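To: structure desk
From: M.T.
Subject: fold request, one chain
Message: Could you run this one when you get a chance? Sequence is below, nothing fancy, just the single chain.
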Amino acid sequence: MSTDCQHHVQPLGESPSHVRRLWVISLMVAVYCIAEIVGGIWTGSLALLADAGHMASDLASLLISLFAAWLMTRRPSAHQTFGFHRAEILAALINGSLLFLVAGGILHEAWDRLSEPVPILATPMLAIATGGLLVNLVSLSILHGHHHENLNIRGIWLHIMGDLLGSLAVIVAAVFIWAYGWTWADPVASILACLLILVSAWRLTTEAMRILMEYAPKDVDVEEIRDHLMAVPEVQDVHCLHVWTIASGLKAMSAHVAVSNTQSDHALLPKLQESLRDTFSIDHMTIQIERPGDSICCNGVDGACLITRPVRLGNHHGHDHDHAHDHDH
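Reply: Done. Structure tokens follow.
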């Protein structure tokens, strides 16, 4: 049996405007990262160096994201049938891991500074931290309205938001040092910045791992999909139902649907496909129709589909049919 597949075309990689935004932000972050490293060494401020470390991880994440965006423009091949959509998820996982490493190094140094305070030049520390805050504000404004579009952009947004809050902590610490001579405010500000970094890292890596481990999307209830299919009069059973995320905004589903022998697949398949697409926003789906007499699969204990026996539904008798109805959408 053949059918005309109506694929919803998915964009390959980031749009040109997104790539331009990422390059502009990368340039600003690179320049100010160097400024904060120099400023941190000059003023003796660990908080500035911590902020510079966060900016360095921002720059690394931006470059990784740009590389992932380039990979995603490559078209699918015989061996990469989904293309390179997962490059976005790998980039997000690497970014999150970098955040953990940066936070660990800063926390170690902050502990040493609390034990042995060092003199700090508060005025230049304040000026440099204020400049970092402005860079972060401009970067966030460039990404404004786009950071929910995919996990890669969201990861960058989290990096920059954490850096902005870190810059605020450095500014507050500089004010305390300038006004009261509280040098301990510098490592404390570093620790607060690290806590923000760790929260961002945890959220980003767990979301990336959910996708890599092929969890069902958070906004999709798998049992609700099963019930939705079972509500169709012709459907007698649903098994081997799998729902996962290929990349941000690209949800996929496969299912075996056992039906009564009363309606042609030409009428039933479009009905199921349109219903799932409209209700659950799933565009890429594979539905295998099984009729009485077909050899079917069932769910194994490990989640795999196991061929068991011919379908026996109601009083329908087995017939020879053109089966193996797999349709990708």
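Reply (cont.): DSSP finds eight helices and five strands in the chain. Let me know if you need anything else for the meeting.
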